[in-house]
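Researcher: Good morning. I'm working through a list of sequences from a screen, and I'd like to move beyond sequence-only analysis. For each chain I'm collecting a predicted structure so we can compare shapes side by side. This is the next one on the list. No need for commentary yet; just the structure.
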Amino acid sequence: MAVLKREILLILVLVLAIALLVRAMGFFKINVEQADAAKFVSEDLSVKHPNTDITILETKEFFNDNGGKYYEVKAKVTTGLYTPCPRRVHIYYNYPVQNFVPQPAEVITENCAACTEGTCILNYPEEAIIASHIFKGTGDVAAFLKEYPSAAPTARDLGGGWLVKWDSVSSPYFYEVKVDKDGVVLNVLRTNKEI
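Model: Good morning. Structure tokens for this chain:
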């Protein structure tokens, strides 16, 4: 009889231990860490969008109806960053995946167009790169890009605007274009390289 009580007690302890283990595993599955979410999104985007520039822009913590923690991750995917017409898209993920569909991708630049609708505000370097050779007053830069198709841009945020430099290793000169955040070209400067 004592052996039977001991076996029943041992079985109850094992059942309790298993129940606690299952609950703990559920806790860790639901309450993921922010770094895990960013890593997952980066890896997934690298597979889905090879040869692109990927950056995690923002991670927000939320709780679902069951009290489980999840993250909404906003990522930037840029194709052709060092070309005259980079394409920038913001992609949203919910991690872990929830029962609802995340918001659709937000296209920032596409088809070499910047400021196509409404008020022109250049928030991103890809927009500034495009503006630096298609906006009014940038005809010399557009001609430079035709003459030197290997020219690559670098864009630097100046706070209230952008400085975009266009340079090619085969060119004896380069261009710098200053454009404000409202899309007004402030200055186009051609500079000869020192020999």
